[in-house]
Amino acid sequence: MATENKKMENPVEQYPAPPFAGQKKQSAPGTEGEMTPKADHGETSYRGSGKMAGRKAVITGGDSGIGRAVAIAFAREGADVLISYLNEHEDAKETAKYVEEAGRKAVVVPGDIQDEQHCRQIIDRAVKELGGIDVLVNNAAFQMSHESLQELSAEELDRTFRTNIYAMFYLCKAAEPHFKPGSTVVNTTSVNAYKPSPGLVAYAATKGAIQNFTASLGQLWAEKGIRVNCVAPGPIWTPLIPSTMPEEKVKTFGQDVPLKRAGQPAELAHVFVLLASQDSSYMTSSTVQVTGGTPTI
Fold it and tell me: How many CB atoms lie within 10 A of CB 213?
């Protein structure tokens, strides 16, 4: 697919801004169909140019949100994609359809990445059904918002760490023997790694851990020619937001950043492509921040 030049737009007005309409309450991690307004994953806008031709990618949380935008972009850049997700079957099927419409192979694998054996199975499926693995995107995450530390249970703390950081370790360890020089890992951290929200104590702590894990692993694997980087999004309009945050916060989500709105998953896709492709060949242990203008230093 050829690259299309996008028209110049005011980024403040490019997408819907808060206040948002009342959302139907969802259980975490939520689904795309219940969101108002609908998120943009680049379904009609992303145009590839062969940056990932022939590559084989695994994306956790690939059914919706940022993961769906990345899956669409990777496929349109020429990659086959394995979509790992928890249990949002309709969302995963929809994402797989976009991958296949781009002429690439899609494999969908439901299951809980808190479990190390399941993480090994994800990598095994990629090797068996895609013919290998060149790119691993650790994107899936769990969060819940709380007004008091007393509301945060030990069980929820454990779930947050197992989903957000343990799974990253499990998957990287399982993928390492299959990686070749030139392979890449892209992890999703957050602006919360730098500016932790008081209502997201557990989630913010895992995002700080991801930041450090990425920096350490990138150095550890550098001599093998395997690069490890991460993306730090600010407030992005995904199903995780209405399914894990109080309604009043959802209505104003994104209004506090300088661009005065939430970001859309499509606005992150090119960054993941950059880090997964040879365009970033001299980048490892790096973080690219996509925060709507919120400074991280």
Answer: 20
